[in-house]
Amino acid sequence: MYCNKCGEKQFEGATFCHSCGSRLPDGETNTQRNYADDQRVEESSKYEPWELFTQKRSDYYIDKWFKKGVAENKTSWNWPAFFLGIFWLGYRKMYEMIFAILGIWLALDFFAYATGIYTTGFDYLVAIISYVLFGIYGNYFYYMRAEKKLEAAKDLDGSYNRQQLKTSGGTSGLGVLAALSLLVVYAVISTALYDWILLM
User: Could you list the residue ranges that cross the membrane (predicted)?
Assistant: First the structure.
């Protein structure tokens, strides 16, 4: 129990503060206040590793993941992911996802080239569907990556390696450049694939 005026810790059952002499509130009220403070501290500690990982806009992602149920429901909306797509993935260091997406695009290109259904409209359709999916599932994709990195950064005693979280998380301008480079490589491979199939 603590004094509301000076903040000094009090003896159990005390009526007046031993430091400043102020009358203390009844035990039940004070206990409830202390419990509420403990809850706030506990909640802050619970989300701290996630904040260390996300860094920029951590409040937004924590709100989406835990308070709006994205971690369980999987769907929400992320405007940067929708508009920027591959580049947003690079910015958030989700390089494995970039490779997976570009691999899927190449597989779809090969199918379209081989079956003769390829048109410019096919590319636009694939891009539109992909970017809508980025918008819908972007927060969940990022949550899965954060969860994986937090698990990797957890020590045997249950604490987290703060430096590892900061290094593996956060944002990266170089990641955007990496995404651009991979997109160019994808375009080159796709064009070469198209030319190869035409010569068959």
Answer: 98-118, 124-143, 172-194
3-class SS letters over 64-97:
HHHHCCHHHHCCCCCHHHHHHCHHHHHHCCCHHH
Under DSSP, the state recorded for 63 is: I
CA distances 36 to 10, 143, 157, Å, are: 18, 28, 27
Q: Where are the domains of the chain?
A: 1-46, 55-199
List CB contacts of 53: < 8 A, sequence separation 6 or more. 146, 149, 150, 165, 166, 168, 169, 170
Amino acid at 199: L
Within 10 A of 176 (CB to CB), how many other CB atoms are there? 18
Tell how many helices (H) and how many strands (E) occur in the chain: 9, 0
User: Using 50, 70 and 90 to split pLDDT, how confident is the model at 6?
Assistant: low
pTM across the whole model: 0.77
